[in-house]
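Researcher: Here's my situation. A collaborator sent me these components and asked whether they could plausibly form a single complex. I don't have experimental data yet, so a predicted model of the whole assembly would be a useful starting point for our discussion.
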Amino acid sequence: MKELLDLFLTFCKIGGFTFGGGYAMLPIIQKEIVEKKRWATNDEVMDYYAISQCTPGVIAVNTATFIGYKRKGIIGSIFATFGIVFPSLIIITTIAMFFQHFQDYPIVQHALGGIRVAVAALITSTIIKMWKQSIKNWIGIILFSSSFILITFTNISPVIIIIFGGLLGAFINLNKKVDA
Amino acid sequence: MIYLLLLIEFFKIGLFAIGGGLATLPFLQELAEKYHWISSYDLINMIAISESTPGPIGINTATFVGYKTAGIIGSVLTTLGIVTPSIIIIIIIAHYYMKFSEEPIVRASLNGIRPTVIGLIAAAGFEVAKIALLNINQFIKTGVLLELLNYKAIVLFAILLYLIIKYKKHPILYIIASGIIGIILK
């Protein structure tokens, strides 16, 4: 029970401080899940994120469900999921009740302006960390650059890009017998 | 029965929207047109709020629509509806992932997927940095290149990045501090 409560509270913390899409929670996941609790490795988190991107549902929720399952099976996945959505329920219901035009308050705008800068800096440091760990050869550099370019400049779905990355990875790595 | 309908409709969104919170938006638009629970004006307002508050955007908008339509019970039901398919699908996939992730073919393809995903995350980071560090609207209006850069934000970004890499403090600390700095510096 203690471990389930820990799962719930940890994901509450993550849900309560994620500003932006699923990517925005990665720096907090890295700190809480990988470094502090050691519930998953960086590589595993990336795998979960990739799978979450390609399966139906909200990415942040899918990733939470995945980590919860790894930790404590089905019941763990339910606690982690409820953890990550709980702050949203409280915050959004409160705003819907009392602040009709929440996003128009100058103080909210200014705070968000600052928070966005922090999110950009945190993501940058997360990308540097992941790069150091997972990009080990020129194949990795090519896969990284092509996915960055395709997402930024075309409308190709991330799902297709991830599947291609996987196929290419399987083909090249198995042929070269490089198993990094 | 509005409660059951909310649960079913959001279950469907959770089941069919692939690619995260923003992928749910077309479904919500359809819902707004079909049931008139909310107007499209409400929806735009809800999306703006969902993007300005913590929590996954898809969950925030679901909670919002639920509350507007049927109060607190409604918000609980829409949230429950949208996450249930995730729980079921991810449990099945996680089961097989744990079983097969050490197989050579799975490892080889995951080795290709990881750099690809880092590229995706970098692209998302690039979009946030564009919004956070540049005054794109101002630049379009005036055409003055010097006005494109948000100097305050760029300096803050550089200082934060240095501190994050050097001191490795908790990300939440940087988020709160930057929110306060944003309010002070406007």
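Model: Some features of this prediction you could bring to your collaborator: Chain B is about 80% helix and 0% strand. Helices of chain B lie at 2-16, 25-35, 40-52, 57-100, 104-133, 136-142, 151-167, 171-185.
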